[in-house]
Amino acid sequence: MSVKSPFEDLREEHAALLREMQDLHSSVRGLAGAETSSLGGAGVVRDELEMFRRRLRVHFRREEEGLFPEARRMVSEGAKGADVFGSFFAEEAEDDMSAHAALASRAEEMVQLTSEIEDAGGADEGSARKLLALSNLTAGLLQRHAAKEDSLIFPMLEKSLTQEQVDDVRSRLHQIGSDRDLGAEGEEGLGQLGGDSDS
């Protein structure tokens, strides 16, 4: 049985996050449009958003600690094509890290706002508009970010990294774990649990 590529694993994470964001956007629209007290609804949406925020952070950690170091090492060691790839990756990695920070921040804002809506007993017109705007912004950011990595960054790395380097990436992703390892411990348990991404 062939071993799954770490890039395939990360692409699948993108697809799962995009599906989850789509479901969340539907929940947010329902909460924002509720005419009666949505105390219970806000709590449910907040919990869904909190899990989404955790999954995002795990995914970003896998990319930043599991994937990017190998690309940086390839550039620093002057691998074949690294001169061209190096300048490209330096720019794209910085842009990627900014996108990670922006997405994490928007997700955190959404969690905070749904907590405030729950405390208030429901969404007023202002909080409903703000929550919908944040949801739209987050969905758009995530879609653009995933598309760029899937169609530009990952293919370039797939062509440039040796099999040994790809194996190193897979090993690091395994050590970090995945969102499938998220349980009651949250992100704190990831370091010890390891992932099943190469099973």
What does this structure look like?
The chain is 79% helix and 0% strand. It is mainly alpha-helical and 199 residues long. Mean pLDDT is 80; it is low at 183-199. The chain has a single domain (13-179), classed as nmb1532 protein domain like (Four Helix Bundle (Hemerythrin (Met), subunit A), Up-down Bundle), CATH 1.20.120.520.
Report the end-to-end length measured between terminal Cα atoms.
Answer: 10 Å
How many β-strand stretches?
0
Counting helices, strands and paired strands, the structural category is mainly alpha
> Could you state the CATH homologous superfamily?
nmb1532 protein domain like
Residue runs with pLDDT of under 50 for 5 or more positions = 183-199
User: Helix fraction?
Assistant: over 70%
Task: Please summarize the sheet with the most strands.
Answer: none
Overall number of domains: 1
* Level-2 CATH architecture: Up-down Bundle
> Assembly type of the shown chains?
single chain
Question: pLDDT average, as an integer?
Answer: 80
Q: CATH class, please? A: Mainly Alpha
**What order do the SSEs take from the amino end to the carboxyl end, as H and E?**
HHHHHH
